[in-house]
Amino acid sequence: MNYEHTTDALKDMLVVSGRLEEWSKKLHKQSEDTQAAIRATREREEARFMQDILTMHEGQHRRIEAALRPRIVRPWQMIAALAGLGILLFAGFLLLLNRANTRLKDAEIRAGAAEVRADVREALRHVDITSCGGRPCIRIDRRSPTWKSGNAEYVVVDGGSVAGKR
Questions:
Q1: CB 144 within 8 A of CB 153
Q2: Would you call 90 exposed, middle or buried from its count of C-beta atoms within 10 A (0-12, 13-18, 19+)?
Q3: Measured between alpha carbons, how far apart are the two ends of the chain, in Å?
Q4: What's the half-sphere exposure (Cβ side, CA atoms, 13 Å) at 50?
Q5: 125: Cβ contacts below 8 Å, ≥ 6 apart
Q6: Could you tell me if 161 and 144 are in contact, meaning their C-beta atoms sit under 8 angstroms apart?
Q7: pTM surpassing 0.90?
Q8: Buried residues in 94-115 as b, exposed as e (16+ CB within 10 A)
Q9: Cα–Cα–Cα angle for 92, 96, 101, nearest 5°?
Q10: What mean pLDDT is reported for the chain?
């Protein structure tokens, strides 16, 4: 009985050992499957985490841009306004300069005319002008030389400076 008992015990041990080996294989397979599932879940979680990080970063970037936009736009608006004001001032100075130039030219023309009038006034000091029956007349020396200009003939008033020209 001992031998039978030992053999039965050995058979039982072999059966238990076979079952243990099967369980070990099952546990090993289950462990590999679980590790694969954990790896797949981790990869999905990492991908979702990265997507969440990117979304959060993009949102933060949009908020920063929105906060900085007025700080960037306002100086450019000021620069544009100052440039416009500078252009207006420059145009105003050009208009004033043009007006001053026009006034200068007008003054030169008046000065030229005044010089002619001064010459005429100087000549008039040497002439006696009077009214002859309501019409102007001058006293002329018939021996005075004459001056021709165009279709008119003039008597030289101061015969000393232009004497002899006819």
A1: no
A2: exposed
A3: 183
A4: 5
A5: none
A6: no
A7: no
A8: eeeeeeeeeeeeeeeeeeeeee
A9: 145
A10: 83
Longest dimension (CA), the chain: 192
Q: Give the up-direction half-sphere exposure of residue 156: CA atoms within 13 A in the CB hemisphere.
A: 15
pLDDT exceeds cutoff 70 at 55: yes
Mind giving me the DSSP string for the chain? -HHHHHHHHHHHHHHHHHHHHHHHHHHHHHHHHHHHHHHHHHHHHHHHHHHHHHHHHHHHHHHHHHHHHHHHHHHHHHHHHHHHHHHHHHHHHHHHHHHHHHHHHHHHHHHHHHHHHHHHHHHHTTS-EEEETTEEEE---TTS-EEEETTEEEE-SSTTTSTT--
pLDDT digits (tens, 9 = 90+) for 143-160: 777 777 778 777 665 544
| Token digits of residue 112 | 């030229």
